[in-house]
């Protein structure tokens, strides 16, 4: 890697750090070593993202509401990315989708849509990675909902919208 390539990677990593992405994911995206990314974190005086976010994708889907949240985010990502490109994880598109997702959540303001349920950017990365690896998919329900399903998730694999409307 020459100096220009390295400086471009460092610039990109700095941008991702400012968005709160984990060092492991930044190293994966930029090709820089974990050590270099961690040094950058220190230089930029940024806190390391919450270690609890370093988890498996299936543990993100803890309730039907979380599945709805995750589905909204992943649907936005799929809409923004090129259809033939779904198996390539585009971090820029993911960040755009996450911003849109946060704005939509704010405007809906359902009582269950609270900050605890919000899917973080790191979690969004994990979820989209599962689609890329074909461990997850978007399922179409008869009600029109296109919801996220991870093959070994703990919550019922049925449509979350239909299940929630039966309860209420
Ligand atoms: Zn449904």
Residue-averaged pLDDT, rounded?
86
Anisotropy-based shape = elongated
**Domain tally:** 2
Number of helices: 7
Number of strands: 2
Q: In angstroms, what separates the terminal alpha carbons?
A: 58 Å
Enumerate the spans where pLDDT stays under 50 for 5 or more consecutive residues.
none
Question: If you compute it from the alpha carbons, what radius of gyration comes out, rounded to the nearest whole angstrom?
Answer: 17 Å
| Biggest pleated-sheet summary | 2 strands, antiparallel
Q: In percent, how helical is the residue content?
A: 40-55%
Unique ligands: zinc ion
What portion of residues belong to β-strands?
5-15%
Order of helices and strands: HHHHHHEEH
Widest β-sheet, arrangement of strands:
1-2
The structural class is mainly alpha
Keywords: Activator, Bacterial flagellum biogenesis, Cytoplasm, DNA-binding, Metal-binding, Transcription, Transcription regulation, Zinc
GO molecular function, one term: DNA binding
InterPro entries: FlhC (IPR007944)
Pfam families: FlhC
């Amino acid at each position: 890697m020459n100096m220009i390539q390295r400086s471009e990677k460092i610039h990109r990593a700095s941008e991702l750090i400012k968005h709160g992405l984990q060092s492991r994911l930044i190293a994966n995206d930029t090709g820089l070593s974990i050590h270099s990314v961690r040094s950058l974190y220190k230089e930029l005086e940024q806190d390391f993202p919450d270690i609890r976010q370093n988890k498996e994708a299936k543990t993100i889907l803890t309730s039907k509401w979380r599945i709805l949240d995750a589905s909204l985010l992943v649907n936005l990502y799929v809409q923004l990315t090129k259809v033939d490109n779904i198996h390539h994880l585009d971090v820029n598109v993911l960040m755009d989708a996450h911003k849109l997702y946060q704005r939509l959540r704010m405007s809906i303001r359902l009582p269950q849509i609270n900050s605890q349920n919000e899917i973080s950017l790191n979690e969004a990365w994990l979820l989209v990675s599962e689609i890329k690896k074909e461990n997850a998919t978007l399922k179409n329900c008869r009600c029109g909902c296109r919801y996220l399903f991870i093959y070994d998730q703990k919550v019922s694999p049925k449509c979350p919208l239909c299940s929630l409307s039966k309860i209420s």
